[in-house]
Amino acid sequence: MSVAPQSTAVSQVSLQARYTRAGLADIFDKVQAGERLSGADGLRLYETPDLQAVGALANIVRERKSGNFAYFNRNLRIDYTNVCNKQCLFCAFDRLPGEPGGYVLQREDIHARLHQYDDVHVTEVHIIGGIHPRLPFSYYIDLLGWVREVRPDIHIKAFTMVEIAQMIKISGLGPEGTVRALMDAGLQSCPGGGAEVLNERVHRELFRIKIGPAQWLELQKMVHQCGLRSTATMLYGHIETAAERIEHIEKLRALQDETGGFQTFIPLAFHPANTELSHLPAPSAFDDLRNIAVGRLMLDNFDHVKAYWIMMSAPISQIALAYGADDVDGTTLEETVFHEAGAVTPTGMTVESIVRMLREAGRTPVERDTLYQHLRVYDSAA
Ligand code: V47
């Protein structure tokens, strides 16, 4: 949906002068004309010192696509197992099979977890887990059923392409057969994790046992063709270069041209604590904002960009709403993956706090469902 921009206070002429000073006049012209940016343009946006200029450009696109709306939803997280055999160097959440501290949630655990929120209105459950080599395919089907038993109406967004790859390996149903069986059991969309950085070098160095760029993209394509929507993440702030980030973004854009199945781009800030890369500094606020802005500018075929408040903190997410983001994720009752890696944000937020945070940022809060249908617009009169 195209919505008229709200903030047009700065005149065209002074904007033009600003982008000329920053050496970005040609990119400004392309953005104004709605033309696609090249990979080389994207690199310049990563390299220019004038982050505010990049943010203001991204805001043009953001307001063109979403007007003044800022989206959130009421969601609940379930991480069904932390047992994983993939040994990704950036992960603090995983436990090797047999290692102390490993868990696998069973029917009664899932029921208890959901019943904890009996009095809370939630529209989405977001379910992911590690790659536990001994879980049978029936476990994943049962898991969806256990959720359905307690919350028949909730939207189930579950399983990254890494988990889907594991299920295809063990189900004996083939790729599409596996996804269709999951859909029959209640799966309605997929989260965008597991992509990390879609580049061979980064794959080799950081997560070589896990599926790589080509397989992640191939599975996303298949899942989209089965009729499921998904999101796409990018894990930044570790060993990747700006050129590798652009490679990632261009691969997402090319697949989106083919399938149109991605809803949202979500840059994820690397949290180094308790990982094999704990010696690295955490990404700065500047890097957070730049990834949002470059993502917004490059991914002209994505409707939404998420500033995931759990990762970025609520204050930086607020600023990101003027740098290209139009979504902050949701109430996220009890996030654990990033908190194991040192996230100091709360593990959830109330709707009231989210609405206040979005309003403070000058945006109109919109509660959405998983597929971005508007459930409630918090206009100023509300
Ligand atoms: O793929 C793991 C990342 C992802 C760390 O689809 C880390 O709406 C930072 O994909 N520091 C899983 N990041 C989470 C995910 C996600 C999150 C929010 C919303 C959505 C969505 C998806 O988390 C993994 C990996 O890229 N991750 N460890 C870490 N130490």
Q: Summarize the biggest pleated sheet.
A: 4 strands, mixed
Q: What does the average pLDDT come to?
A: 94
What does the oligomeric state look like here? single chain
Q: How large a portion of the residues is in β-strands, by DSSP E?
A: 5-15%
- How many helices? 16
- Summed up, the domain count is 1
Say what the CATH topology is. Answer: TIM Barrel
First-last Cα distance = 23 Å
CATH level-two architecture: Alpha-Beta Barrel
Radius of gyration: 20 Å
Low-confidence stretches: 1-8
* Level-1 CATH class name: Alpha Beta
Supply the key terms:
382 residues, alpha/beta, TIM Barrel, 4-stranded mixed sheet, 4-stranded parallel sheet, globular, disordered N terminus, binds ligand V47
Question: Explain this structure to me?
Answer:
The chain is built from 16 helices and eleven strands. The radius of gyration is 20 Å and the shape is globular. The chain has one domain (66-377): Aldolase class I (TIM Barrel, Alpha-Beta Barrel). It has helices at 12-21, 25-33, 39-47, 51-66, 107-115, 137-150, 161-171, 174-184, 200-206, 213-225, 242-259, 285-298, 309-312, 314-320, 337-340, 351-360; strands spanning 69-73, 75-79, 124-128, 155-158, 189-190, 229-236, 262-269, 304-305, 327-330, 364-368, 374-377. The structure holds ligand V47.
SSE layout:
Blueprint: H1 12-21, H2 25-33, H3 39-47, H4 51-66, E1 69-73, E2 75-79, H5 107-115, E3 124-128, H6 137-150, E4 155-158, H7 161-171, H8 174-184, E5 189-190, H9 200-206, H10 213-225, E6 229-236, H11 242-259, E7 262-269, H12 285-298, E8 304-305, H13 309-312, H14 314-320, E9 327-330, H15 337-340, H16 351-360, E10 364-368, E11 374-377
Parallel strand pairs: 1-9, 1-10, 2-3, 3-4, 5-6, 6-7, 7-8
Antiparallel strand pairs: 10-11
Helix pairs in contact: 1-2, 3-11, 3-12, 4-12, 5-6, 7-8, 10-11
The protein binds ligand V47.
